[in-house]
Specification:
With 503 residues, the protein is α/β, with parallel strands linked by helices. The protein has helices spanning 3-13, 30-42, 76-80, 87-97, 104-112, 114-124, 157-170, 224-229, 247-253, 288-292, 312-322, 349-355, 357-365, 374-382, 386-401, 481-502; strands at residues 23-26, 50-54, 70-71, 131-133, 143-145, 175-179, 181-189, 192-200, 203-208, 211-214, 259-260, 265-272, 296-298, 343-347, 370-373, 425-438, 441-443, 449-451, 458-464, 469-470. It binds flavin-adenine dinucleotide (FAD).
């Protein structure tokens, strides 16, 4: 899967020397790649070069793992599908999810630019973001992802976007990618950022720049920042790559940047527990889109306990409360019990079809999702009484058919829970809450300026975008908003950097 990015890395890093950069971007996830594309477009016809420094061997970051999609309100795709949505509704959902701690200025900008961001990917890069789902906390369907290929192969959305942008950049003569380069210091010329110092292959090097964009991602992968701000979560598994250690926070606070919301760490309710390694620290994410397509959550006794489409914090607490004890937590038969709260995730055939059989087949091949033909086989696989299981699924479908609200406040029921054909397969997995996303980060404004701790003014020459920033998502990030944030504020950072470089 990573070969395209590797090729892009080689092609892009071969023909330039580091000393020529006008703009330096630190981090090669979606925020960094979007910033690079925009900076190059805005400096067309000039000699300004853009260097992207990435500490890993390949670009992609956590962005490459994203599987549920990118939000857009009022997109052409929504209109084609007959979905009525507005900028105001996305802004309101974002702020509601943030529990009063989100910035309305940033949320407004995010929502306003959301349709443009999705359409930028669709038109400039020919990305087919034509499947739209309603995910937890959203008032309508607005999370766009890629359909399976006609021959049934899954097209993961994050990977598709970052690999396409990376390929595009590799063809740009004014772009160079410096891979395996860990930025360690932001250089100052008076009060102004004037470049970076980085380590590559054991050597320390310096690179001058008129603007630096920090796009180093979050700190959900572990390390000092997580230990300092969320020590209570240290024992939890994580969906993040180990590279997500908050380096950008270290770099920017050393030059006076303000931090915001650092205690706010999002635990995703559904990291897959693999039967072959139930205690593994890194969990493959069970995409939000599974529940968006109609997947249900059950405790070990076969009972539902939450609106599966509630926000992540609500679903996580419900799993912790309902599936925490040895007799209520879901486990794999014959496998070690890691002792973590865990639920069964269950899809009917209709929910599986809505999610995409290609993507589901990928999970099955990875040993994360299993199937059982008919209710009897399913109850046996989950080691629960068939009657209890059937009762839960039937009760769900009755409320769905009555177009009503269930005991957990659920009012959107994407698909029936019971299969019409008694012999048809059900699909199931064991899922556990896992550290997923860090809401806190560098305080920034709607023009991607990093703000100073002492007086709130922009630090001259320093921009930031993506998960390294904080303040937008408050106490809880809405699903699909981060890929969107990476595009909206990544492009804005690129635009601002271009202006600085052209002066
Ligand atoms: C499993 C998973 C699924 C997700 N699914 C979705 C989804 O469907 N929709 C959605 O909106 N969000 C999703 N998210 C969240 C979203 O993908 C991330 O928050 C977002 O992609 C972060 O993008 P970024 O560009 O800020 O950082 P990243 O993509 O993490 O990139 C940061 C890069 O910076 C590099 N870096 C760090 N420090 C340095 C340094 N000192 N020097 C040089 N390079 C450095 C890292 O190696 C990394 O490559 C998901 C997250 C995960 C983990």
């Amino acid at each position: 899967m990573h070969s395209i990015l590797k090729q892009a890395t080689k092609a892009a890093s071969s023909s330039h020397t580091a000393a020529q950069a006008g703009i330096v971007i630190v981090g090669g996830g979606l925020a960094g790649l979007a910033a690079a594309v925009e900076a190059l477009q805005r400096t067309q016809g000039s000699g300004v070069t853009v260097a992207l420094l990435e500490k890993e061997a390949r670009t992609g970051g956590n962005s490459a793992k994203a599987s549920s999609g990118i939000n857009g309100a009022g997109t052409q795709t929504q209109r084609k599908l007959g979905i009525n949505d507005t900028v105001a509704a996305l802004e309101a959902d974002t702020l509601r999810s943030a529990r009063g701690e989100g910035s309305s200025v940033l949320a407004e900008r995010l929502a306003q630019d959301s349709a443009g961001a999705v359409e930028w990917l669709q038109t400039q890069f020919a990305l087919d973001l034509d499947v739209v789902a309603q995910l937890g906390g959203h008032s309508v369907a607005r999370t766009h992802r890629r359909p399976d290929t006609p021959d049934g192969r899954p097209q993961p959305v994050g990977w598709g976007i970052v690999s396409t942008l990376a390929k595009h950049l590799a063809d740009e003569p004014r772009f160079r990618l410096v891979a395996g380069a860990r930025v360690t210091t932001l250089e100052l010329d008076g009060a102004r950022i004037s470049g970076v110092t980085y380590e590559q292959d054991g050597a320390t090097q310096q690179l001058d720049a008129r603007a630096v964009v920090l796009a180093t991602g979050g700190f959900g992968g572990g390390g000092e920042w997580l230990k300092r701000y969320a020590p209570q979560l240290e024992a939890l598994p994580a969906t993040n790559g180990a590279f997500a250690t908050g380096d950008g926070l270290q770099l920017a606070t050393a030059v006076g940047a303000a931090l915001v919301g650092m205690e706010r760490v999002q635990v995703h309710p559904t990291g897959f527990v693999r039967a072959s390694e139930p205690a593994a620290h890194t969990k493959f994410l069970a995409a939000e889109a599974l529940r968006g397509a109609g997947a249900l959550l059950l405790d070990a006794r076969g009972r539902r306990f939450v609106d599966e489409l509630a926000t992540r914090d609500v679903v996580t607490s419900a799993i912790n409360d309902a599936c925490g004890s040895p007799d209520t937590r879901a486990t794999h038969a014959g496998a070690e019990d890691p002792g973590l709260p865990a639920a069964f995730l269950l899809l009917s055939q209709a929910a599986a079809d809505a999610f995409g059989r290609g993507a589901l087949g990928f999970y099955e091949k990875m040993g994360l999702v299993y199937s059982a033909a008919g209710l009897g086989a399913l109850a046996a696989a989950l080691r629960m009484p068939r009657a209890a299981l059937e009762h839960s699924l039937r009760a769900h479908d009755e409320v769905r058919n009555a177009d009503s609200v269930d005991d957990f406040g659920k009012r959107v029921f994407p698909q029936p829970a019971l299969n019409a054909d008694a012999a048809a397969p059900y699909f199931w997995a064991v899922v556990t809450p896992s550290i997923h996303y860090t809401m806190g980060g560098l305080r920034f404004d709607e023009h991607a300026h990093v703000l100073r701790a002492t007086d709130g003014a922009p630090i001259p020459g320093l921009l930031a975008a993506g998960e390294v920033t904080g303040g937008l998502h408050g106490a809880n990030r809405l699903a699909g908003n981060l890929l969107l944030e990476c595009v909206v504020f990544g492009r804005e950072a690129g635009r601002q950097a271009a202006m600085l470089a052209l002066v």
